[in-house]
Each structure stands twice: as structure tokens, then as C-alpha cells.
Design brief:
3-stranded mixed beta sheet, 31% helix, Type 1 glutamine amidotransferase, transferase activity, glutamine amidotransferase
């Protein structure tokens, strides 16, 4: 499959999303020709933040988390933002989606705090990941292996996990997503 033919799902809570961790993959993948769906907990506008504290851009979701399913997509993206992921990691629809992607052998890309969702979805055991350092203990306690790198790709357990630490790593993160869709 080529990026031009790929269907990508990005999932978020409606507020507290780190702006560039959502907008860069969303826009870069669309510019490369992928069909990108932004699914949120509600159809209210998605309010992003910069550095977890300054007001960012507001985006309109395309769908509800409860209305999308892994079978319709090729790859899942989970942006960070402390408040975003702290809420989405306990959302039953988000957890089920992550589990469906993994069980169907489809790639999941999570940046910064995004990997927290995978901890709650019980998918991180046996995986090596490089999320932000603030959740390193959560990764380790869930049976994963934390590394401090710009990008980590792990194909263990039948599905690909792509992780990056922070917005400074977005070039590597987005390129790895494109490569996974190539």
C-alpha cells in the first residue's frame, strides 16, 4: 500500500492535545495523499495546547471515537498532551480501538504521552518504546522497555509500534508513519 491510498485514524480527547503532535501528522499525512480521520470523544471542537499550558489551534473532529473501527483504517496515531491522554487512556472506546489495531496486526504510532493509552490497553508488555520520560515508569511497570531515543520502532507481538518522545522528534515520527504505510 502507498501513503496515497492509506487510511489513517487519529484519536483524541476534545481538549488538552499538544498542538504540533496532532497538527503535524494530520497535515503531513494529508499532504502526502492519505485519508486522515480525526476522531474525538465528542463532536465538539478539539482544543489543542502548546507545551500543555498555552492556547493552541482548535480543530473540528470528523467522527466520534465510538463510531470508528480499526477494520476501516491502516494505521492509528495517538498524539500526546498530558490532559488529552490522561482522559483518553481511560476511555473504553479508545482502549478498544487500540486493542483492535494491535490484534489486527496494524501499526500504532504514539508520541509523547500517547503511549499511556497503550499501557491501559494492556498492549505495551514485551514492547520497546520511547515516549516522553514522564511515563517511563508506567511503560516499565506495564512490562515494556523504555528507551530515551528520538524514534523507536518495535515489531514484536505481531504489530508495529512507532514511538517518539516529544515535538522536537516529529520529523522522525512522521517519516516513520509514512514508511509504515509505504
Amino acid at each position: 500500500m502507498a501513503v496515497e491510498n492509506a487510511k489513517v485514524l487519529i484519536i483524541v480527547n476534545n481538549w488538552g492535545i499538544e498542538e504540533t503532535e496532532l497538527t503535524r501528522p494530520l497535515r503531513d499525512l494529508k499532504a502526502a495523499g492519505a485519508q486522515v480521520t480525526l476522531a474525538a470523544t465528542t463532536l465538539d471542537p478539539c482544543e489543542t495546547v502548546q507545551h500543555d499550558r498555552y492556547e493552541g489551534e482548535t480543530l473540528t473532529p470528523d467522527a466520534l471515537l465510538s463510531d470508528v473501527q480499526a477494520a476501516d483504517y491502516d494505521l492509528l496515531v495517538v498524539p500526546g498532551g498530558t490532559c488529552n491522554v490522561d482522559r483518553i487512556r481511560v476511555n473504553k472506546d479508545a482502549i478498544a480501538l487500540a486493542q483492535e489495531f494491535a490484534h489486527e496486526g496494524k501499526p500504532i504510532a504514539a508520541i509523547c504521552h500517547g503511549a499511556w493509552l497503550l499501557v491501559n490497553a494492556e498492549l505495551i508488555a514485551g514492547k520497546t518504546a520511547s515516549p516522553c520520560r514522564y511515563i517511563a515508569a508506567d511503560i516499565e511497570n506495564a512490562g515494556g522497555h523504555y528507551v530515551d531515543k528520538q524514534l523507536t520502532i518495535d515489531d514484536k507481538n505481531g504489530w508495529r509500534l512507532i514511538t517518539s518522545r516529544k515535538p522536537d522528534d516529529l520529523d522522525y515520527f512522521v517519516d516513520a508513519i509514512k514508511d509504515a504505510l509505504a
